[in-house]
Write a structure and sequence with these properties.
This protein is of the alpha+beta class and 450 residues long. It has helices spanning 21-38, 51-81, 138-151, 201-208, 220-223, 227-234, 238-243, 265-272, 280-315, 321-331, 337-364, 370-386, 395-405, 409-430, 441-447; strands at residues 2-7, 12-19, 86-92, 107-115, 128-134, 154-158, 166-174, 187-194, 215-219, 247-259, 433-439.
Length: 450
């Protein structure tokens, strides 16, 4: 067998393969013998069918299988031995001549291959990259404090209904068509009714005028037209709530009102851990610090989007587009030509970025160690708890959660990709001229909409 490579240009090449009878004869004859043992044919005992008959009936198909296997293995070995960097898979050349397996003993095949491009990263300290940093103003600080006061607030019992912010609690009962309690109807204890979400104004007025131990009647669908809200109130399925058209009554047992948590030592301890913050100024500093971390993620995300596009443009990564379009079409046979045409530009851009990332990782020998994976897992857990206002998780509590997360291969791979991506963008930041520009949160958020 002989394989030669001819470069069409810097991005495309063809592999010419010459196969002689000596290359496949032994394996072909062995395959014939194996097949002969398996097939059954009337008039012959198992395994006793004449070899010539087997070849006549099945020889071409067996020959084709053996040659295809030989070609696949040979191309694979040739690429590895010659350390060729290719994109996609070799494709049969469009102008391959028809092959006569019945009469020919020597065969020639031609395959197209896409070559991995050679390119330079255009990163230097003269290149300006914008980095947008959110200005932490008094409004942001105040909003963050309000968020914590609201999050750590609680319902407190009061004696009378003062306004729409009041919540009443009582036992709910379904009424029949004449206004009496429906014995086999819906009955629910300790139901909480938020007066401000009542849509029926007459019903709302009756609640606002009520006192503890009063009984209020209302039509559920009119007072709570939202099917999900009404299902939650009646503690039934949404489907049953939609079907139900009854009046209900509630006997008020408790009146409550939401009370925001006061800004004091108790709030400091709940947010940052006991004794971590001991005064107003220190509390404000910690709020500013947490806001910077919070908005740094958004700033970094914006930088990544911009840097990614600029580096792709500056690095001028050229690809064998026509070859890749053929390859994408073959490996995605479920896609129509129109779908391929529509999605192909995005595929090309993603491929360029993947090559740039691989180059940065290889040239800088970036890798990921176990401690980095544990740190990333810890950050994820802390972020999840922070969504519920919990920011002071102990290491003892973190460790089993981290261990559980790192048992999942899919999760580990996700963390590894994230860590490598962070290292890539840290590398970019270090090798360009970073221009920090202070913007408001609204201005930064508007940039994502453009």
């Amino acid at each position: 067998m002989n394989i030669t490579k001819e470069n069409t240009n810097d991005l495309n090449a063809i592999l010419k393969i010459n196969i002689t009878k000596a290359d496949y004869e032994e394996k072909y004859e062995k395959a014939i013998r194996e097949y002969k043992k398996k097939i059954k044919m009337d008039g012959f005992r198992p395994g006793m069918i004449p070899t010539g008959l087997v070849k006549k009936l099945y020889g071409t198909a067996i020959m084709l299988d053996e040659i295809n296997r030989l070609i696949s293995d040979s191309i694979h070995n040739y690429i590895n031995e010659n350390k060729l960097k290719i994109i996609g898979d070799p494709l049969p050349h469009a102008e391959n001549n028809a092959i006569d397996f019945d009469n020919d003993t020597e065969f020639n095949f031609t395959f197209d291959i896409g070559l991995y491009p050679v390119f330079d990263l255009k990163l230097n300290k003269k290149e300006k990259y914008d980095y947008f940093e959110v200005k932490i103003d008094e409004n942001l600080i105040e909003d963050e404090i309000k968020y914590y006061c609201n999050y750590f607030g609680e319902l407190k019992e009061i004696e009378e209904i003062t306004d729409e912010e009041v919540v009443v609690e009582g036992d709910l009962q379904e009424l029949d068509s004449v206004g009496n309690i429906f014995d086999s109807g819906i009955k629910t204890e300790a139901v909480k009714v938020f007066i401000k979400i009542i849509k029926d104004e007459d019903a709302k007025k009756r609640f606002l005028a009520a006192k503890k131990f009063d009984i209020i009647k209302f039509h559920a669908k009119s007072a709570f037209p939202n099917d999900t809200d009404r299902a939650g109130l009646l503690k039934i399925s949404k489907e049953k709530a939609i079907e139900n058209n009854s009046d209900f009554q509630i006997s008020i047992n408790k009146i409550e009102k939401f009370s925001h948590c006061e800004v004091n030592q108790s709030l400091y301890d709940k947010i940052f851990g006991e004794g971590t913050v001991t005064g107003d100024e220190q509390f404000k500093e910690k709020i500013i610090e947490s806001l910077k971390v919070k908005f740094e993620n958004e700033s970094n995300y914006k930088f990544k989007l911009d840097a990614k596009e600029k580096i792709k443009l500056d690095s001028e990564v050229e690809l064998p587009s026509e070859f890749l379009k053929r390859w994408v079409s073959l490996v995605n046979k479920e896609f129509t030509p129109e779908q391929i045409e529509k999605e192909f530009p995005t595929f090309i851009e993603d491929l360029k970025w993947q090559m740039i990332k691989e180059k940065i990782i290889a040239e800088n020998k970036f890798n990921v160690i176990e401690e980095e994976l544990k740190k990333e897992a810890a950050n994820v857990v802390k972020y999840q708890y922070a969504q519920y206002g919990i920011t002071n998780i102990s290491e003892e509590h973190l460790e089993p959660m981290i261990a559980h997360m790192l048992k999942e291969d899919k999760t580990v791979n996700k963390f590894r990709d994230k860590i490598l991506e962070d290292k890539i963008f840290d590398f970019i930041k270090e090798n360009v001229k970073l221009e920090t520009k202070e913007v408001t949160l609204e201005e930064l958020q508007n940039m994502f909409k453009q």
